[in-house]
Description:
The model is unreliable at about 495-503 (pLDDT under 50). It is built from 20 helices and no strands. It is mainly α. Helix content is about 70%, strand content about 0%. Pfam families: CstA. Its main location: membrane. Keywords: Cell membrane, Membrane, Transmembrane, Transmembrane helix. Belongs to the peptide transporter carbon starvation (CstA) (TC 2.A.114) family. This is Carbon starvation protein A.
Amino acid sequence: MVTFLLCIAMLVVGYVIYGRAVEKFFAPSNNPTPAIANPDGIDYVPMSNAKAFLVQLLNIAGLGPIFGAISGALWGPSVYLWIVFGTILAGGVHDYMSGMLSVRNDGASITEVTGKYMGKIMQSIMRVFGLVLLVLVGVVFMVGPAGLLAKLTANVSFLNIQTWTLIILVYYFLATLLPIDKIIGRFYPIFGICLILMAIGIAVSTMIHSAERPMMELTLVNLYPATGKRPIWPLMFITVACGAISGFHATQSPVIARTIKNEKDGRKIFYGAMVAEGIIAMIWAAAAIAFYYDPSKAASGMGLEALLKVKGGNSTSVYEMCKALLPGVGTVIAMLGVIACPITSGDTAFRSARMIVFDWFKLDEKRLKIRLSVAVPLLLVGYVISKINYGVVWRYFSWSNQTLAMIVLWCGATYFATNYPNKNLCWICAIPATFMSSVSVTYLMYAPECFNLIKQGHTGIVISYAVGIIVALAFLVIFIVRAYLSPEKCVEYQKSVKLGRKE
């Protein structure tokens, strides 16, 4: 329990100290935000800080810090370190930069922001990549809840998985089309509070039951069950995405960037929501290890066999934990977590996809017919993809998710290097960008759904590691050359100084 409490404390201290340092480097101004300068009643709608924070948390969280953290628990307490340091040094920086760069660019989608600072080629790549990821997210967070709802209503013949998928799709259509304050701004704060209370309940109950289910202290030993042994690197760093860093967040941050009323609120909303998600992930990871670990099987390397049998983080494991740890209300809370939370991330995924298309083709979001012409095809594509095997969709989503995070961090590093007199500020983004480049490329080489070098055994692992490190270092060298040898620009910095912003 000591390790768990220390990790929670580190996340809070990280928000206060490192989050403040990132904010100081970025230097938020008093200039009017997009919501204040260009309100349109659709996407650009001012929100209070509390509401913006809760909506941001629910947008980026969904099932990520629950399913991902429980699946990451298969490797044992080593997952704690990734959640803590990933959140503070990578995820928080990623979310803050993606949100604030959108604010600085009139609420532009991350695809347009990336294009501005990294060039037209990267912009085109990001437009396609971002759309694909968002549609995959929408599908993942549509099929999962539909399947569970079908199980719960199995006695009603017409309420099968296809029916529930269509019902959720209709809701997505409304949430994608209507002004942000009609559904999302009105109801999501309630779901956000429920997500937090759900995590607190699990944490408190796990600590109360520590006598029979002790919370494991930190060990770097790979505890993945021997029958299906998987290496920590890079698999755990891909599996635990939203609880440490997630490129999906960069697609969601512009939604809230169009609603905040002051740049100086960015740390509370963007960095703060990521830290809150890290805390939620930490709770679920620690609770899963305590709940499923069997000390009597530790010698055989099968201590977490029970968690592997339920296939890690999914509706089954969440339901079992909630029912046992929170008797009485556990079932209700579990249903809220595995049905409402993913749905509330899926709809904003399609909304963000619609925003990317509008930014790409310079369309007018005020015109209902145009919103319909974009929203309907996107949702139809999502429905078609929902017919594909769910496991396959999830694996491609996971890799594309972390790859997008890598690109956004490089974008943040480029922004600092080309728009501020002190180029060395870029390292708060460049270091985690290099790390995530290695994670993404190594996984690309290793994973069965990619180049599948895992089938080559130890040789395949070595090749995957080598390629991942070499490519990451190559990206770093290219960045250093472009950042330090290119002419000083500082265009935005100079413009902001004239408007009275302090560095």
